Amino acid sequence: MDSILLKKFIGNYRTPFDEEKAMVPDFLTLLDDPRAFSRDRKEGHFTASAWIVNRRRTHTLLTLHRKLQKWLQLGGHADGNENLMEVAMNEAREESGLTSLRLVDRFIFDLDRHVIPAYGTEPRHFHYDVRFLIEAEMDEPLVISPESKDLAWVGFDMTAELVGHEGSILRMLEKTSRSEILL
C-alpha cells in the first residue's frame, strides 16, 4: 500500500464515529506533504498501529509504553515507509515477538490523530495513526521490546479501565465488538 493507494483508502474510509470522520480531511492533506512519512516533519507525521485481538474477539494485546507511561495498542513510526500496513505488521512483530500475526483484511480499521507531548529533544507533535486489525494466538510467548515496560493480553471487559477510558481505544474496542462477521 503506497501513498496513492493510501489516499484512495482514506478518501473512501467510512466510519459511524463523528470524531473519526472529522479527521479524514487532515489525513488527506498530510498525504500531499512529501515528508508525511518521516519523523523529520516535526509538526506531525504518519504512524501505523496494530489492534491485535485473539480469534474469539475476547482479548486485545496492549503494551505499557515506556515513554508515554500508558497502556496502548502496538505500533510506531513509518520512518519513510509509505506502506502503513507493512509498518503495522512489522511493529507488531518487533514489539511483541509474536509469529502468529495475521492481518484480518487489507482495509484501514481505524484512524486517529493525537498529540505526542515533548520528550527530550523531540517537540510536541501529532501522530496521524492508521490502524489495522490483526489476529494472533494468545498461547504464544510474548517478548517485551525496549519501547515497552510490559505487554499483556487484556480482556475486553477490563480494557476501558486499564487504558483510562481513552476514547480512540474504546472506539476500536466497540468496532471489534461489532465485527462478529469476521469470526
Automatic annotation (TrEMBL):
Question: Known InterPro entries for this protein?
Answer: NUDIX_hydrolase-like_dom_sf (IPR015797), NUDIX_hydrolase_dom (IPR000086)
SUPFAM superfamilies recorded for this chain?
Answer: Nudix
* Gene3D superfamilies per UniProt: Nucleoside Triphosphate Pyrophosphohydrolase (3.90.79.10)
- Coiled-coil segments: none
Q: Which residues form the signal peptide?
A: none
Q: Which residue range or ranges hold the Nudix hydrolase domain?
A: 43-176
Name this protein carries in UniProt: ADP-ribose pyrophosphatase YjhB, NUDIX family
Which lineage? Bacteria, Pseudomonadati, Bacteroidota, Cytophagia, Cytophagales
